[in-house]
Amino acid sequence: ELKVEQNPLFLSMQEGKNYTIYCNYSTTSDRLYWYRQDPGKSLESLFVLLSNGAVKQEGRLMASLDTKARLSTLHITAAVHDLSATYFCAVDRGSTLGRLYFGRGTQLTVWP
Amino acid sequence: ETGVTQTPRHLVMGMTNKKSLKCEQHLGHNAMYWYKQSAKKPLELMFVYNFKEQTENNSVPSRFSPECPNSSHLFLHLHTLQPEDSALYLCASSLQPGLAYNEQFFGPGTRLTVL
């Protein structure tokens, strides 16, 4: 079964700092998604990465995909409090069953 | 209504009760999913329906019974649950598995507490 590992699982950072969240997966895939979840809320789609070398940016977040290394990163630039949330990566094997394989999530807290 | 909606948003039930969770998607999608999110576990896929047909049952106990009458509606019928079934139950939909990508859109979830 495909394994998805995120690290760190918990991240506490000061406003204005930069940091990267890593998402490693165990088998070949060129489709990866990043989601954000606020406490008590549902998952909100952030990025869709569909090929090796794909890079997407939205505000202070930038996601990339290296399919050869089976690695995706979510880079946070100059963090602000509003980015505090849990971030999930999910890998899609392209199966007609439609299953996504989720990481455990990274709980990000940004403090002043 | 837009996106994926779920009702009720909160549910408290006893172990002998029978209740149902409802999900509706307004996105014109063909696939729908039930996930369970517990505090101490990763997001767990429970069921997948593709064009109203169940395509995956991820070893879910029979006290959870899904129903998909059409591509827009998905139900999760609950009976004789256990306290460990308390969790956030999320519904999601996607256009069609096997396409170029399968981005899933999630509903707000039902917070279930089993007493």
Strand proportion of chain A, as a percent range, falls in over 45%
Total helical elements of chain A: 0
Parts with pLDDT < 50 across at least 5 consecutive residues of chain A: none
Q: Give the number of DSSP strands of chain A.
A: 11
Which chain pair has the greatest contact?
A-B, 25 and 26 residues
Rg of chain B is 13 Å
Oligomer class: heterodimer
Structural class of chain A: mainly beta
Beta strand % of chain B: over 45%
Summed up:
The complex is a heterodimer of chains A (112) and B (115). Chain A is mainly β and 112 residues long.
Descriptive overview:
The complex is a heterodimer of chains A (112) and B (115). By secondary structure, chain A is mostly beta strands. Chain A contains no helices and eleven strands. Chain A starts with a strand and ends with a strand. In chain A, strands 2, 4, 5, 9, 10 and 11 form a six-stranded mixed β-sheet that branches. In chain A, strands 1-3-8-7-6 form a five-stranded antiparallel β-sheet, with no helix packed on it. Chain B is mostly beta strands and 115 residues long. Helix content of chain B is 0%, strand content 56%. Chain B contains no helices and eleven strands. In chain B, strands 2, 4, 5, 6, 9, 10 and 11 form a seven-stranded mixed β-sheet that branches. A four-stranded antiparallel β-sheet of chain B has the order 1-3-8-7, with no helix packed on it. Chain B is globular. Chain A binds chain B through residues 31, 33, 35, 40-45, 48, 50, 88, 90, 92, 94-100, 102-105, and chain B through 31, 33, 42-43, 45, 48, 50, 55-56, 90, 92, 94, 96-98, 100-109, 111.
